[in-house]
Amino acid sequence: MVHLKELNKYNVWDIMELSTEEEQERFIASNVWSLVHAYVGNKTSGAVYPFGIYDDDTPVGFLMLAYDYGEVCDDKNAPEISKGNYFLWRLMIDKEYQGKGYGREAVRLGLDFIRTFPHGKADYCWICYDRENTVARKLYLSFGFEEIGEDAEGDIDAVMKL
């Protein structure tokens, strides 16, 4: 059964060892770098939620959510939609487990978690992804995300009403 597991001192090592195909590395930061963002974000604003994606006891991916991204990262270029809303910040499925529905299930579970409003009520969840990442685009649009423009780096921003 696919589920999300909060990261802790015991399972974080498993998540750091997961990897994508080499040609996918340009689409997402490493899990180690993402965990640095989570640590710093939680030390400053307490609004980052890193999870391991598991199939029973097997780690298959990583999901990271945040609330009020612009504040968490002190990002002056964050889109307006980031203020007071949730962000599906990272999603990665290990190269050995791609194409098996884990990404779809992780997004569903992540949205279920967001809808508990763990850091406060919000109207939207937003995401950004590389315009060339057609797999991510198809996945997110299938959940009802709507593209709203580009960020400063040329990535696509998309939102969904919660």
Overview of the structural elements:
The protein is an alpha+beta fold and 162 residues long. The protein has a single domain, classed as Gcn5-related N-acetyltransferase (GNAT) (Aminopeptidase). Helices cover 28% and strands 30% of the residues. It has helices at 12-16, 31-44, 69-73, 102-114, 134-142, and strands spanning 2-6, 48-55, 58-67, 86-93, 124-129, 146-150, 156-161. It has a seven-stranded mixed β-sheet with strand order 1-2-3-4-5-7-6, sandwiched between helices. A hairpin with a 5-residue loop joins strand 6 and strand 7 (156-161). The protein is globular and about 35 Å long. The two termini are 25 Å apart.
How is this structure best summarized?
This protein has 162 residues and is of the alpha+beta class.
Superfamily (CATH H level) name: Gcn5-related N-acetyltransferase (GNAT)
Beta-strand segment tally: 7
Number of helical runs? 5
Strand content: 25-35%
CATH topology term: Aminopeptidase
